[in-house]
Write a structure and sequence with these properties.
alpha+beta; Alpha-Beta Plaits; globular
Length: 370
């Protein structure tokens, strides 16, 4: 099979593919090697066939349809008001909603924004080490959104990250840890609502039943109003960053004026580099790092790594006694070669992978999910 070609093999949203139209208008024969569109950077590799499958193909595949239908339904529930049946508590929802978007009647959309209605783009990822290994993410795609405000966001550069690491090694008794914020975009209110549409025919039936979506249908589409940040909205990153800055400023943290993405505290020995929702934190005294953790935990779900062994995709191997830190990207070459099964088979014919489906890419525009 000839692997899909794209200018960036790992940019899932590099091309303007409307997932809704791909799923409903394209008949995919998953057993034919020449049916995959060559302009798609597909995220899931089926090791039984050697083919890469994207969202629409996974949901048409008889073997994987049920799994990815459920995953897609869970993602819509998470973005909306929740839903799904809890396996052990019948009166409790399985998925808690974030109230990021909700269905709306087409005639309730303001007339001046009906030309700005966006479409969705969906990517899937297999994470074998997670409790729920099959991840679906809905993002906003297209160029129809007309947001006239500033969308730029200051993030730390690789040089800033390395300088923070060097500072940790050269500061007596300093240590390094990392933090990651979950649903960073989804908790940020938008300064104006946006609108998106999804074909009714591709929405899982349990979502249609839970929200009574039939009554919202307009020419075969369901329209949603978005009131909080979503991945793909060009203003979401800046708004989320500004809200984070406001919350941290009240706790004594500020961003350095001349170094984007580098933050300090007014008096505590804490410095951190911030890349979207990833914190690489230098601290002297755990109580000071805990102060930052508590400040963030008031508003976000925070995952911590006190060993500081991974930051923004970079693996860190610390030796405080020798004052060294080795930076690597473990598994990078394997990930690069994975879209080309013929390469793997030539170099190592006995290679086996733990799952029949394996993720081979991540969105270049979104922070990672844990």
């Amino acid at each position: 099979m000839t692997p899909p070609t794209t200018t960036n093999r790992f940019a899932l949203l590099a091309d303007a593919i409307i997932d809704d139209e791909l799923l409903t208008n394209t008949i995919v024969d998953v057993d034919a090697a020449d049916t995959l569109p060559l302009f798609i950077a597909c995220p899931v590799l089926d090791h039984e066939t050697g083919q890469t499958l994207e969202h629409g193909q996974l949901r048409r595949h008889p073997k994987y349809k049920a799994t990815w239908d459920t995953s897609y339904a869970d993602e819509i529930f998470r973005l909306c008001q929740g839903g799904g049946k809890h396996p052990t508590k019948p009166n409790q929802q399985q998925i808690t909603g974030t109230n990021t978007m909700r269905p709306i009647m087409f005639h309730d959309i303001p007339h001046d924004q009906k030309g700005d209605i966006a479409h969705t783009q969906v990517f899937c990822e297999v994470r074998p080490t997670k409790a729920d290994p099959n991840l679906t993410r809905v993002t906003i795609g297209g160029n129809t959104i007309n947001y006239i405000g500033d969308c730029g966001t200051k993030i730390a550069s690789l040089e800033t990250v390395k300088l923070t690491i060097n500072s940790t090694l050269s500061t007596p008794n300093a240590e390094y840890m990392t933090m990651d914020l979950s649903n960073f975009y989804l908790g940020t209110p938008l300064d104006r609502p946006e609108f998106v549409r999804i074909k009714l025919s591709i929405i899982p039936q349990e979502v249609i039943d839970a929200y009574g979506l039939d009554k919202y249908a307009y020419n075969g589409w369901i329209y949603f109003i978005i009131t909080k940040g979503m991945y793909g909205l060009k203003q979401a990153g800046k708004l989320a960053n500004e809200l984070l800055a406001t919350r941290l400023f009240g706790q004594g943290y500020y961003q350095c004026a001349t170094t984007p993405g580098l933050w300090r505290h007014k008096w505590r020995p804490v410095i951190f580099a911030l890349i979207v929702n990833d914190f690489g934190v230098q601290y002297t005294g755990r109580q000071h790092a805990n102060h930052l953790l508590v400040a963030l935990s008031e508003h976000y779900e925070v995952t911590t790594d006190w060993t500081g062994t991974k930051f923004s995709g970079i693996d860190l191997k610390w030796d405080y006694a020798k004052r060294t830190c080795r930076l690597t990207m473990n598994g990078y070459i394997q990930d690069v070669r994975r879209p080309h099964p013929i390469w793997t088979s030539r170099s190592n014919k006995s290679t086996t992978l733990p799952s029949p489906l394996t993720s081979i890419g991540k969105s270049s525009t979104e922070p990672r999910h844990n």
